[in-house]
Amino acid sequence: MSSLAPRLWVGIAFAAVALLGVSGGAHALDRRFELTPSLLSQGGEAPAAPRSEGRPARKSERASAGVTDYTVRPGDHIFKILMKEYGFSNREAETLIPEVRRINGITDIRRLRVGQTIRIPLGTAAGSDVRGHSRPVAREAAVASVASVPAAKDTGHLLRMTSYAGARATHDLDAARRLWDGLVAAEVRDARPIRIEDRNFSLSLDPENFPTFPAADGGRILVDADGKIPPLVRALIEEKEPSVRIVSENPRNRRRFLASLLEGAGFYSVEENVSLEFGADPKLTVTADFKVEKSPDSLLHNDVILLNVDEYRRGVPPALTGFLKREGFQMVEPFLGRGESAPPASQTLYQITASEPRDIADSLLRALNLRYDVDRSVELFGSGDGGVTLFVRADRYFENGGDRFVVSHFDGDPVSYTLTRLLETRGYRVIMLGDHDDFRMVAEKIFGRLRMPGSFARYDLVPYREAPYGIQMSGFRVPRSGSATGGFFTNAALNPLFRDLLDFNGYSIVSY
């Protein structure tokens, strides 16, 4: 029996180890919480684990200042890498993270790619001595012990997060909040700070440094502008308060910040970089940074929001604002920088309203400021031609830049056509019109004979880069030539809205 005792004890030991292994696998900790549960049970920095004298140094130990490379493994995030692999304290890691993000081009510290190699600057962390080893750093009461919680509440450990925002960030945040108050109904706003009570912990966030915005669906949006909330705390918030959505964009980047707010607001529909078109020729195109439909029937109730947040372009004039409102859209431009001042009048638009070929030609000649004679008799043969004198009737005759021009309408008479063409042998520049010539054909003939460069096309009269809307119109854009004036020539019909917008953008409209 005595010889069986040692074997019995060895068997019991192996069974206990196996049982513990099975139990541990059945209750494995969520990877989101595996890094810092110790922070919730200690009042200060976690002390560094003691090393035996004979244990070799870890590969990632901060033995000297400089920059080292680290390959991302599954479950890694920057906090974990800096604190667990390189021994930085929580404060040192927070100080170093902006530099790590900068040199590696990282936009989101929680989304590292497995296998990615990142560079870690070892010599720039605050609170490290010349040998590269971390030394104790005085820290604020970011983590309090159980004793700091009132005895009447059995809420475990108290974790209080604090961030820091600059004056500019505060200004940008206030501007965004004023805009947000107009987008979200007052009845769904919840001004309470984020606070989570649990049997094992109590979590609160300072509303001054971690502000919240109401969501349209009754939830809340938590702003973590500088990514100060550790992954563990983020996981706790997402686990215990699913109605809270965390936004990590900085208010200084206004467009990205508002995009993240709108994405988490719970609106029925949010579109970015929207373009709306009205009309064919001329065509009005309205652009918006965001289009927001609060509910499925927003369009029926004329409650679709067009939001522009770019402050470097001119705003929308009142005429266009009123038109959009009648079409069911509300234009919101809360950050205008250049106001609504229009540029000085510097261009002329000539609208040709005539429809008959002769009338179109007369309108174009008047628009070009070319004086012409009607039914002028032009000499084909004179006294120097052997005593033979022959005059040909020209519908219109004018001169420009030393050249003589004849405009004739072909009525089917071959004799008249031949005599008119013979004028070209005498140095006249002949413009022959047909019965079915429209504005484009007449204009091409006149501009071509005048040697005025310009082609019929659709032109951007108001470029998008100057304003959140544009006007496209077909016609001719020609420069000045001799005594002929230049400008934009079109036969497009202009309703009052287009006239107002063109006038607002510096066009003088002259109709013929």
From TrEMBL:
CDD domains: LysM (cd00118). Gene3D superfamilies: LysM domain (3.10.350.10). Residues 40-67 are annotated as: Disordered. This is LysM domain protein. Residues 52-62 have a biased composition (Basic and acidic residues). One of its GO terms (biological process) is peptidoglycan metabolic process. It comes from the Bacteria. One of its GO terms (molecular function) is lytic endotransglycosylase activity.
